[in-house]
Amino acid sequence: MENKMFCYQCQEAAGCIGCTQRGVCGKSPAVAAMQDLLVYVTKGLSAVTTRLRREGTEIPPQLNHLISTNLFVTITNANFDEAVIVSRIRETLAEKERMLSLVKNVRDLPEAALWTDSEENYAAKAVHVGILSTKNEDIRSLRDLITYGLKGLAAYSKHANALLYDDPETDAFLQRALAATLDDSMDVDALVSLTLETGKYGVQAMALLDKANTDTYGNPEITQVRLDTENRPGILVSGHDLRDLEMLLEQTQGTGVDVYTHSEMLPAHYYPAFKKYPHFIGNYGNAWWSQREEFERFHGPILMTTNCIVPPKDSYRCRLYTTGAAGYPGCPHISGGSGEYKDFSQLIAHAKTCPPPETLEHGCITGGFSHAQVLALADQVIEAVRSGAIRKFVVMAGCDGRAKSRSYYTQFAKELPSDTVILTAGCAKYRYNKLDLGDINGIPRILDAGQCNDSYSLAVIALKLKEILGADDINALPIVYNISWYEQKAVIVLLALLSLGVKQIHLGPTLPAFLTPNVSKLLVERFGLSGIGTVEEDLKSLIG
Ligand code: FSO
Ligand code: SF4
């Protein structure tokens, strides 16, 4: 087995260049190779489905789901289980062969659409289909920017699919764009257009998920979430999948087992539908990267519904369960596809044998400021803007991460002038959501809209403000953007904002390693995208 790897898809890529030995995330070269091959065969299948659509053949929803889930599996910190990835490659190749037999004209299909082989040759093939197989650096950079944006888009589609919401138009785009990254006739200009189109469909995917979540669970509302614990055994739910949480809450009712959220699951508390469960206690811990200490002290089973998994310590490895696109070798996986019932009885029985969680914190945090809630307060908000009580909104959405340099965001939040309000979404919030920044005429200075996909809510709020204030340009609003990123869902959020015309976004703590100087220059010139500087410099340039 070839032991080299190259991965640069997340913000923690080694040396801001790429991981070549073992991922900073813990990904092994063997898993990296199988992820590369899974992306390759998924692109091949997408080239086939795209050709079939052109020929008038309908693509079944299960195939769209297979493609989205494949991409989700390869997102940073989602799935470390080589056997699972290999079985997905096998299934994808089988589906691809079946679909290929329906194609009337196979001329000019890319090699990935035609390749198939047996499992013993996967490793040898993977060596030739990784990131570095595209030789021109700028083309590679744009292909990867699109591919990573599509991974984020696929993740959001999969969550919507879990609630039985589908958008065949977005699926068709995703597959067409994946196929286009194999197309050598796509030059820099064509790939730049496709990048923006990816952002446009990113907005559409986030809108679909917003609709799925709010139709199913109601509109998030202002909520105080407990940070302490009860004296009963508990299950901790992490990741982003609300449907998984719902099934677990149903099944734990009356069992004496409590349920707590972790990291990106915190916003579940804001939905009316989850408030009816008295055993849904509160939020435990912080952003994904501090899980090794926090999971140890939780004492009960932990359910990872998506990323971000950190390779577990032995002390709690047997308590870590995965489901959906998430996976970790040796940790039990709860099966069940979109729309299927998942049986969590194993976790519940396990929880009953565990001591209650150790309390990490006391008090509450407030959240639930999604678009419907903010629009319900529109009069109050507009009055505060018109009177000058609110000078600026600062969008600080995105992800958190391990890097020490991310203390910048805590400092930035602390030093923002008292007439500014932070709009946040995603796990980035944990850098400042427990600070007491007070309020402006009753409007809290930190408004948490929800998970990273709820950045869509922030865009809806911006567009509504534009309408009410009669601004002719989204960039004329008193809103500035200081976004932090980590993995590929943040890439689709960024592309979505660019496609909505947002300019002068600050992105940190470092710019993506997959942007070449030429592609960075292009983003700077066209969109005014920039990295971060010191807190003082950025306060000056963003707030004035
Ligand atoms: Fe964070 Fe992880 Fe939501 Fe990401 S928990 S880093 S952008 O998966 O998806 O914000
Ligand atoms: Fe490295 Fe990030 Fe890739 Fe993991 S996902 S191997 S940390 S670049």
Explain this structure.
This protein has three domains: 203 residues, Substrate Binding Domain Of Dnak, Chain:A, Domain 2; 130 residues, 3-Layer(aba) Sandwich (Rossmann fold), CATH 3.40.50.2030; 169 residues, Rossmann fold (3-Layer(aba) Sandwich). It has a six-stranded parallel sheet with strand order 4-3-2-5-6-7. Strands 13-10-9-14-15 form a five-stranded parallel sheet, with helices on one face. The chain contains 19 helices and 15 strands. The protein starts with 28 loop residues before the first helix and ends with a helix. Helix 1 runs parallel beside helix 3 and helix 7 runs antiparallel to helix 8. The mean pLDDT is 97. The relative contact order is 0.12. It has 544 residues and is an alpha/beta fold. Bound molecules: iron/sulfur/oxygen hybrid cluster and iron/sulfur cluster. The site of iron/sulfur cluster has 12 residues, from loops.
Main sheet? 6 strands, parallel
Q: Uncertain runs with pLDDT below 50, 5 residues or more?
A: none
Our Rg estimate from Cα atoms comes to 23 Å
Strand order, sheet with most strands: 4-3-2-5-6-7
| CATH architectural category of the largest domain | Up-down Bundle
Number of discrete helical segments: 19
Q: Which CATH class of the largest domain applies here?
A: Mainly Alpha
Strand content: 5-15%
Shape: globular
Mean pLDDT: 97
Number of strands: 15
Oligomer: single chain
Cα separation of the termini:
55 Å
Helix content: 40-55%
Number of domains: 3
CATH topology of the largest domain: Substrate Binding Domain Of Dnak, Chain:A, Domain 2
The secondary structure category is alpha/beta
